[in-house]
Amino acid sequence: MSPMPEPTHLPLVLTPPRGRAKPPRHLADLTLAERLEEATRLGLPGFRARQLSVHYFDRLVDDPEQMTDLPLAQRAELVTGFLPELMTPLRTLEADRGTTRKTLWRLFDGALVESVLMRYPDRATMCVSSQAGCGMACPFCATGQGGLQRNMSTAEIVEQVVAGARALARGEVPGGPGRVSNVVFMGMGEPLANYHAVVGAVRRLTSPAPDGLGMSARGVTVSTVGLVPRIRQLAAEGLPVTLALSLHAPDDELRNELVPINTRYSVAETVEAAWDYARTTKRRVSIEYAMMRGINDQAHRADLLADVLGSVGDPAPWGWVHVNLIPLNEVRGSKFTRSSDEDMDTFQRRLLERGISTTMRDTRGSDIDAACGQLAATEG
Ligand code: SAH
Q1: Contact 172, 203 (CB under 8 A)
Q2: Do 364 and 118 meet the contact criterion of CB atoms below 8 Å apart?
Q3: Which of 133-147, 231-245, 358-372 shows the lowest per-residue confidence on average (mean pLDDT)?
Q4: For position 280, which CATH number holds?
C-alpha cells in the first residue's frame, strides 16, 4: 500500500476555524447571583463580585486603577476573571454634528460588528448588533449579503450599550452628560436567531444596578424578520420589550423575495404571531416597511397592508400596531433604490386614511453608512 501523499501546502498557523472558540466569559454573561457563586468557586469573597458589578454597571468604570476598593493584590485576578476585554474599537465615525456615532468593533476572534449611538434632544438610542453578519439574506440589506459568521454572547451585546453609556456619562457626546434611554436590536444580525444570548442581554439591560444597567424594558426594541416560534417564546418571557416586525411586503409573493424566511412563515402566520405578542404583552408592535422604488411602494400594496394588519380582528383593533415607513437606505452596488417622496407620501396617507398610526423614520447616519441596513463591518 502506498503511503498517503504529503500535503503540498501546510498552513503556516494552525488556527481553529472561526466560530469554534467561545468569547471570554464576562460578568455581564451572568446574573448577580451567578457572579457571587463564581467568585466563591474561585476562592474569593462573594462581595468582590458585587463590587465589580457596581464598577461595571453602575459607575461605568473600565479602568482597573479606578477600582480602588479592590485590594491591589487581587485586582488583576478579579479584572481578568470577570471583566476580560471583549472587543476593541477599530474606528468611530460621526455624523449629525457628533450626535450620531458609529463604532466598528473587533471581537476576540477577529469578527467585526458595528453599533450606532444616536442622541436626540429627549433621548439617546443605542442600536446594537446581536450577530456578526446575518444568515437571513434579505437582498436589500448590506449585512445580509455577507452571511452569518457567528452569534454574539450576552456580554458582547451588553458591552456595546455600556460603551455608549460611558461615552454619554463622560460627556463625550455633544449635549452634555447623559444616559442611554433606548436600545434597539437593529444593528447586524437577527436577534431571535440568537435567542438565548439576546434574552440574557435584555435581562442584563433591564435589571436594576448592580445586577444590570437598570433601563426600562419599554425602552428596548427587538427587531425581527419574523421567526414565529421565537416571537411566541418571547411573548412568554414576561419582558415587556417592544417587538418590531420587518414586514416590508403585505403579500407572500413579494415577501418571499424580500425577506426569504417568509417561505417558512407566511405573512398571515407572522402577522398573527405579532398580534398575539401585542395581546400578551400589551405592547404595541411596530411594523417596519422599507420603501423601495417600484418594488413594494405601490398604492395597492398600502391598501393590502392595511387589510393584512386589520385581518386580526373584526372590527380591526388598530391600536395594536404602528407602521414605521423607512425610506430605503441605499446600499452601494444594490439594485434597490429609495421610493420617491411622492410615492412615500401617498403610501403613508392611504394607511392613515384606514386609521393605522403610521410615521416615516428618519435616516440618521446614512452619510456614514450607519443607517438601518447599511452596517456591513468592512475594514478600510
Ligand atoms: N434582523 C432584524 C434586525 C435587522 S436591521 C430584522 O430584520 O428586523 C433593522 C431593520 O432595518 C429591519 O427592519 C431591516 O429590514 C431594515 N433594513 C435592512 N436593510 C435596510 C435598508 N437598506 N434600508 C432601510 N432599512 C433596512
Answers
A1: no
A2: yes
A3: 358-372
A4: 3.20.20.70
Q: Model's pTM, two decimal places? A: 0.93
One-letter amino acid for residue 255 of the chain:
R
Atom of ligand 1 nearest to the CA of 189: 1
Q: What would the DSSP string read from start to end of 54-109?
A: IIIIIS----GGG-TTS-HHHHHHHHHHHS---EEEEEEEEEGGGTEEEEEEEETT
C-alpha 36/C-alpha 332 separation (Å) is 49
| Number of domains the chain contains | 2
Q: Is 138 in the active site?
A: no
Q: What is the mean pLDDT of the chain?
A: 92
Same domain, 151 and 271: yes
- Domain that includes residue 39, residue range: 27-82
Per-residue pLDDT reduced to its tens digit, 330-356: 998 899 999 999 999 999 999 999 999
pLDDT exceeds cutoff 50 at 157: yes
Residue 363, C-alpha cell as written in the block: 435616516
- Grid coordinates representing 31? 446574573
| Span 256-313, pLDDT tens digits | 999 999 999 999 999 999 999 999 999 999 999 999 999 999 999 999 999 999 999 8
Longest CA–CA span in the chain (Å) reads 81
Let me know whether 141 and 42 are in one domain.
no
Measured distance CA(258)–CA(77) in Å, rounded: 49
What are the tens digits of pLDDT across the range 191-225? 999 999 999 999 999 999 999 999 999 999 999 99
Residues with CB under 6 A from ligand 1: 136, 138, 140-141, 186, 190, 223-225, 246, 288, 290, 326, 328-329, 331, 372-373
Best mutation site among 102, 128, 141 for ligand 1, i.e. most ligand atoms within 8 A of its Cβ? 141
